[in-house]
User: Fold this.
Amino acid sequence: QKEVEQDPGPLSVPEGAIVSLNCTYSNSAFQYFMWYRQYSRKGPELLMYTYSSGNKEDGRFTAQVDKSSKYISLFIRDSQPSDSATYLCAMRPVNTGFQKLVFGTGTRLLVSP
Amino acid sequence: KAGVTQTPRYLIKTRGQQVTLSCSPISGHRSVSWYQQTPGQGLQFLFEYFSETQRNKGNFPGRFSGRQFSNSRSEMNVSTLELGDSALYLCASRPGTQETQYFGPGTRLLVL
Assistant:
């Protein structure tokens, strides 16, 4: 079983919908949680970064961490066609270097006009 | 500022050959990391270099190696290529003290 599980999708929604993307994990030592967006033929770009539990909001994006359930979510409000991309979750324990992130395999999101 | 650049963008090799991929980080960034991305395994950390020294290494065989030059540019080498090495190889750089790392577009390697 992988340390981080993520539904590969694709997830298809109409423009304006609220999107919920999720990851589950098994390592209770994970403390740093990130969401990356990857467009086709591009490298991932960091969207959201949270430490430990709780919520973090940035514009249309909200990241949520529930450590008791080992479950993290990314919500996108008022989704746009330009949000169509693959979304990767990533996480690491507090005692390892930032680069030793463990990634999910990514969820492909398609937002139709 | 220019972003992270990787060369070549696409590469086709045959089993048993070796390959060298290059990464130029964002100007001023001293840390360079390499990742392998495949549909089945996702993004997996290969290694990280900082000021020409390898600081972290992932769980890959010794056929995968890298180095960093004094100008922070980095190369990774894969020897004795196997079919399973077909993947997108991503390089990421960051300033020395920040969490945010910036990815390049990747080199897509196909091993036949």
